[in-house]
């Protein structure tokens, strides 16, 4: 299992206002989508999200997103090492995801291709 990259998660009040800053900062074009009532934009290594307090609570408790080429292997290795599955692997608009709590308390979203 290998984590290929880490995506920094950032809540913003106004996604439309925030995206241009992160596009300039990273030299990347935002990829926008919605999930579970939350508006999101992936810009380089950042995942910006906005929405009502109730909706963003579903994503705000996660420290970071860990990207793995083989999501199933990553989840299996993490659980074998003591992580707890908070949300099992499921499809998303951009692939698949799972949420795990590491043995020392951190909660992380793991994502991978479909």
Automatic annotation (TrEMBL):
PROSITE patterns in the cross-refs: VOC
Provenance organism: Streptomyces antimicrobicus
SUPFAM superfamilies referenced in this protein's UniProt entry, alphabetically: Glyoxalase/Bleomycin resistance protein/Dihydroxybiphenyl dioxygenase (SSF54593)
Residue stretches making up the VOC domain: 2-113
Superkingdom of source: Bacteria
Protein name: VOC family protein
């Amino acid at each position: 299992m290998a984590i290929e990259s880490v995506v920094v998660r950032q809540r913003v009040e106004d996604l439309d206002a925030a995206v241009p800053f992160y596009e300039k900062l990273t030299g990347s074009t935002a990829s926008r989508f919605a999930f579970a009532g939350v508006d999101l934009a992936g810009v380089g290594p950042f995942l910006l999200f906005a929405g009502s307090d109730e909706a963003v609570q579903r994503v705000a408790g996660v420290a970071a997103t860990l990207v793995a080429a083989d999501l199933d292997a990553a989840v299996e290795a993490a659980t074998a090492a003591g992580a707890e599955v908070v949300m099992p692997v499921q499809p998303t608009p951009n692939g698949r995801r799972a949420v795990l709590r590491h043995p020392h308390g951190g909660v992380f979203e793991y994502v991978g291709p479909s």
